[in-house]
Amino acid sequence: MAALRENLRQDFARNRDPLTRAVLLVFRYGQWADRRRGAARLLLGLPHKVANLFLLRLGVGCDLPPQLACGPGLRLHHAGRGLAVHKRAVLGANVTLFHDVAIGQRDNTGEPTLEDDVVIGVGARVLGPVHLGQGAKVGANAVVLDDVPAGGSALGPRATIRPPAGAPAL
C-alpha cells in the first residue's frame, strides 16, 4: 500500500488535471491489485476491471494494463486519450506520454523499454524490442523501430536517430 501511495504522490505531482489524476488512480490501483494473490486478487481486481472499462477504455480511450512495469512520476497529457501501451513494455520513472501514443510489439519480436525521463510526442509509435535511453525524446508522429541513445531524439515518419549534442555520430 505504501508503494501505491508513493507512486500516486509522484504521479499527481506531475499531473494537475482531475481527469488525468482519475486515470492514474485507476491504473495504479490496478497495478496494486494485480500484485495480490488468490482471492484477494479477484476481490480487489473487480473494482479495477469496472473502472478500467468505463473510465479508461470507454471514457478516455486509454489502454494502460495493470501488468505494465512503470516507474513513478508518469505524466499523461490530455488524460492519455488514445494511449495504448503493451502490458510487457517497461516504462522508467518520470516518463511523459502525450495523447495518441502507441508503445507495443512489432511482429511478436518483443516490447519497448523506456528509461527514466523519456518524452514521447503526440501520435508517436514505439514498436518492437527497442530501447530508449534516459532523457530520450520522440517527436510527434515519429515511428521508432530502432534504439535511441540516452539524450537522443527520434524524429520523422521513420524515425531518424540523432545522438545527443557533442556525442559522436552513429
TrEMBL record:
Pfam families: Hexapep (PF00132)
Enzyme class: transferase
The EC number(s) this enzyme carries: 2.3.1.30
Catalytic activity annotation: L-serine + acetyl-CoA = O-acetyl-L-serine + CoA
Keywords carried by this UniProt record: Acyltransferase, Repeat, Transferase
CDD domains from the UniProt entry: LbH_SAT (cd03354)
UniProt-listed PROSITE patterns: HEXAPEP_TRANSFERASES (PS00101)
Keyword Transferase tagged: yes
UniProt entry tagged with the keyword Repeat: yes
Transmembrane annotation, as ranges: none
InterPro entries: Hexapep, Hexapep_transf_CS, LbH_SAT, Ser_O-AcTrfase, Trimer_LpxA-like_sf
Superkingdom of the organism of origin: Bacteria
Entry's family note: Belongs to the transferase hexapeptide repeat family.
Name by which UniProt lists this protein: Serine acetyltransferase
Organism: Asanoa siamensis
